[in-house]
Amino acid sequence: MKTAILSNATSIICCHPHPSGDPTPSPEDIEVTERLGEVGKIIGIDVLDHIILGDGCFVSLKEKGYF
C-alpha cells in the first residue's frame, strides 16, 4: 500500500506469479487479499482485484468471490 499511497492512487490491482505454474490461490494468497481489502477500505484505496499468474493462465480472486 505504500506505493499506492505515495502515488496518490484511488485503487490498485495486485498481481503475482506462482512459480509452480498452478495459479490456484493458496490460503496465504486469500488471507493477504482480505487484509489488503480491509486496509484499503480504511485508507480509501480500493483493491479492484488480485490476480495470480500461472503457466499460460491466471486466476482472479475477485471472480472467485474471495473479496
Structural class: alpha+beta
Report the CATH architecture. Answer: 3-Layer(aba) Sandwich
Radius of gyration: 12 Å
Please mark out the parts with pLDDT under 50 across 5 or more consecutive residues, or reply none. Answer: none
Mind explaining what this structure looks like?
- With 67 residues, this protein is of the alpha+beta class.
- It has one domain (9-60): Cytidine Deaminase, domain 2 (3-Layer(aba) Sandwich), CATH 3.40.140.10.
- Helices cover 33% and strands 27% of the residues.
- The chain has two helices and three strands, in the order H-E-H-E-E.
- Strand 1, helix 2 (27-43) and strand 2 form a beta-alpha-beta unit.
- The longest helix is centred in the middle third of the chain and has 17 residues, at 27-43.
- The protein starts with a helix and ends in a 7-residue tail after the last strand.
- The model has no long low-confidence stretch (mean pLDDT 96).
